[in-house]
Each structure stands twice: as C-alpha cells, then as structure tokens.
Amino acid sequence: ALLKLPRSPAGKAARMRKDESLLGKLGGSLARRKRSREVSDLQEEGKHAINAPLIPSSAELHPEDTLLEENAERTMLDPTSREDAKLKDLQRVLIDWVNNELEEERIIVKDLEEDLYDGQVLQKLFEKLSGRKLNVAEVTQSEIGQKQKLQTVLEAVNELIQHHGWSTEWSVDLIHSKNLVAIISLLVGLAVHFQAAVRLPEHVSVQVLVVKVSRKKDGVLHATHVTKELTTTTEDAFDTLLDHAPDKLNIVKKSLITFVNKHLNKLNLEVTELETQFADGVYLVLLMGLLENYFVPLYNFYLTPENFEQKVHNVSFAFELMQDGGLKKPKARPEDVVNLNLKSTLRVLYNLFTNYKNRE
User: Which residues cross the membrane (predicted)?
Assistant: First the structure.
C-alpha cells in the first residue's frame, strides 16, 4: 500500500503565489477591458451630445431609419401624433369601412400597418371597389412577391386616382415598410374616389418627421418636422347652409319636419326638433317602418334606450333598414346622430325625403 505524504508548506506557498499571479493578470485584463468600455461609452455619449440638437428627442429612430445614402431621406410619423384623438378616429373609420367592404371575403382588419403592408387586403379592396380583377398571385409570403403584388395594385390605383388630380403620396416601399401616413393617405384616396359611404373626420393632420443625411463624410442626420394633412373638409350642401345661409336652412328644416310628421302622425307622434328627437334612433326606426309599410318588431330595437350604446344600436339598425329599402348606406355615422350632430341628422333625413317625398 502507498502512503499519502502530507504536502510541504513550501509547495503550498508556491502554488498560492502562482494563483495570485494568475488572478492578478486576470484582474488586470478585466480592468483594462472595463476602462476600454468606459472610453467607448464616453465617445458615444460625446457623439450623441453633438448630434442630439439635430434630432428631436420625441422621435424614436430605429437603426434602419439611419441607413441612408447622401441626400436621401426617410419619413416617419412623429410618436406624439400617433396618440392624436382625430387620427385614431380616422383609423377606426377606415378600418370599419374596409371590413364592411370585404365582409364577403371574410377578411377582418384590426391594424392598418400590420394588416395592409403586404398588399393582400389592398388587392381585395381595390378589386371590390373597382369591379376589376388584378393579375396577381393570391398568396405571397416572400418580400419580393409581396412587393410585386403591391406594385401591381398601386399602379392600378394610381392610374385611376391621378386622372382626378390626386397626388399619390404613397409607394411600394412606404406601404411595405408599414408607413402609417402612406397607408392612410392611400385609403383616404380610395374612399374619396369611390365615394365611400363613410363620413371621414375632417381636418386630420399629423406631424411627420423627415430624416435626411446631408453630408455623407460625417454622417450627420438632420431631422425636421412637417405637417401632413390627411383629410380636408368634406363640405356639402348642408355645410353651406349651416355656415352661409341660415335663413335657407330653416326652410329646409321646416320641410323635413313636415315630411316626417306626415308619417309619424299615424302613430300619434310629433316632431318639433330635428337635432334632438332623432338622436336615440327610435323615431328613425319607426319612420322606416312607416315609409316601407311594415311593422318593426319591438325586440329588434330599444324602445326606451337608456345609454349611448343602445342609442347607437337603434340608429345603426335604422341605417340597415334604409339599405334593405334600396337606399345607399348613409355617409353619416350613427355616433354622430346620437351626439346631436345637426348636419349628420339632416343628411339622413334629407336622404329619406328625396326617396320617399311622394310616399303617402
């Protein structure tokens, strides 16, 4: 058997000195790396401090936004505008419109940027609105295929819209990069051109950040804010009456009151104020039943609505009855009628007056 001899103190001390030497080298290396990182971070902070005044702090620039050729530029929506209430309202109206148009295709859009960038929904929307079939692949997964589809769709859109004086502020690259301003501009252009049965919020504008590299040698980014108008006014005859001819407006209101009472009196109902008495939708539903000569079951609407949602339900249901009667979908929104918007209520009633004025 072998005996295990105790280690000598001298050998142990030598190994300790060796370990300390190794730790010292390791510690020195780590310290040098830390100092190097600190210097690098300091240089980056200095570079940022120099360039910071050129780029607004509210803008969130992603790496791809800064990869620009000399004198090239990139545009993006300023984050503060993304939270604008009117912009959100416009997006909601456009989403509802697209979903309504593509209901038969079983397409549901929830987000304009994520759902429209690849061209699939835009293709179906254009084909539905124009009645024209595009020669494109139905499903494309690759980026090249998606851009080819977008190219075909946008060429068809531009061919129609440019004839009517529209400036096309969208492109394949902008749409595919999920540029919200370009996508909304395209949808607004389509809605206006095809006279969509929607009421677009008026005077919606946003702040767009334009980033540009002016001197390639130092790579300095210059950013400026530009106001982009997405919708203007959609003034029509009622806008003109309200704003410029109040005397004639009163004549129109009296004619409409006479028209609706001619029919509502059959149910012993009387209207004296157009802007308030149609706001809960009850009279609209009953009026449609009288004009089309049928009884509307009471379980289809709220006879005594108690909240905003029930009133909107009633007005929406009345709009459905109008469409069932062969009328176009009203451009006014149910919410506008409920919110006592006089122009919206007048548009709805005038549409009924035009179609049923000779109805006994």
Answer: none
Q: Name beta bridge partners: 228.
A: 206
pLDDT of residue 234: 56
Residue 185 · residue 170 · CB < 8 Å = yes
Query: In the predicted model, is pLDDT for residue 23 greater than 50?
Result: no
CB 76 within 8 Å of CB 211:
yes
At 281-307, the pLDDT tens digits run 999 999 999 999 889 999 999 999 999
- What is the CB neighbour count within 10 angstroms for residue 230? 20
| Token pair 């979908």: residue | 329
Is the pLDDT at 93 greater than 60, yes or no?
Answer: yes
Chain segment 143-153, per-residue pLDDT in tens: 888 889 999 99
Contacts of 63 (CB under 8 A, 6+ apart): none
Chain segment 211-232, per-residue pLDDT in tens: 776 554 455 667 787 888 888 7
Please give the helix or strand (H or E) that residue 214 lies within, else none. Answer: strand 205-215
How far apart (Å, rounded) are the C-alpha atoms in residues 215 and 211?
13
Q: Bridge partners of 73? A: 212
CA 279 to each of CA 13, 290, 291, 343, 356: distance values in angstroms, whole numbers, following the listed order: 95, 18, 19, 12, 21
Taking the C-alpha atoms of residue 45 and residue 52, their distance in angstroms, rounded to an integer, is 10
Token pair for 179: 């540029």
Residue 280 CB neighbour total at 10 angstroms = 23
Count how many residues are written for the chain: 360
